[in-house]
Design brief:
17% strand; 7 strands; seven-stranded parallel beta sheet; 8 helices; alpha/beta; Rossmann fold; single chain
Length: 236
């Protein structure tokens, strides 16, 4: 079992659910957040505080902040779970270059840099877990979410390629791809319209995403490699 788990984006709904699930299973956690300090405080109070090794704040849209985060981690990292992300809604032609850069850095370059920093130690130990929380849009694409779909598609490709490269070193690389999950990030959409298109007739739960992550963290799932596991209720 991986012992120390770095969760990037632990203060969000899905990140918090993952932290609670893994803490309950005995993992030790290194928790990252950006702006939502109050949510991080609530999370720590809701889990066994002995399970939390370190809390780190960083804006992952900034290269300097990513490097600082990596250097601030004082414990060995046995697993990394990438949950950090933000959506971007609007016509592609209205998207500014700054918005493009932020989305690209947060979802693609930051994971590259963090993985590159901690990967050598995993390779040395011949074990490790890397899990991304991507999105259904990274597979099928979405109108008005072209940038978001693009960067989530990049994450999926990174998972598949890195899995082939580091598999011989005993490192597991996979992703969980949620569909419509009942989170704050989806509060702006017309839920009834989307739910009517989902065969299970409901939104997914953050806890269901967390359980899938737990499944991938288990060493009994080690033969799963380079996979994008869909959690969509049959949608699309």
């Amino acid at each position: 079992m991986a012992e120390n788990v770095l969760i990037l984006g632990a203060s969000g709904d899905i990140g918090s659910a993952i932290a609670k699930q893994l803490a309950g299973e005995g993992y030790s956690l290194l928790l990252h957040y950006n702006r939502n300090k109050e949510a991080m405080k609530r999370l720590v109070h809701e889990i066994d505080e002995e399970r939390v090794l370190q809390i780190v704040q960083a804006d992952l849209t900034l290269t300097s902040a990513v490097h600082k985060l990596c250097e601030e981690i004082v414990y060995p990292v046995d697993a990394i779970i990438y949950v950090s992300g933000m959506a971007h809604f609007g016509l592609f032609q209205d998207t500014t270059e700054r918005e493009m850069d932020e989305m690209l850095h947060l979802h693609v370059k930051a994971p590259w840099l963090v993985t590159k920093y901690f990967l050598p130690d995993m390779i040395k130990k011949q074990r490790g877990k890397i899990i991304f929380i991507t999105s259904i849009w990274g597979h099928v694409g979405a109108s008005y979410e072209v940038i978001y779909s693009s960067v989530k598609g990049a994450q999926n490709s990174f998972v598949k390629a890195l899995a082939k490269e580091v598999g011989p070193s005993g490192i597991s690389v996979n992703a969980v791809s949620p569909g419509f999950i009942d989170t704050k990030m989806n509060e702006h959409v017309e839920k009834e319209t989307i739910i009517s298109q989902i065969p299970l007739n409901r939104a997914g739960l953050a806890s269901e995403v967390a359980y899938t992550v737990s499944f991938l963290m288990d060493d009994r799932a080690n033969y799963i490699q380079g996979e994008i596991i869909n959690i969509t209720g049959g949608w699309l």
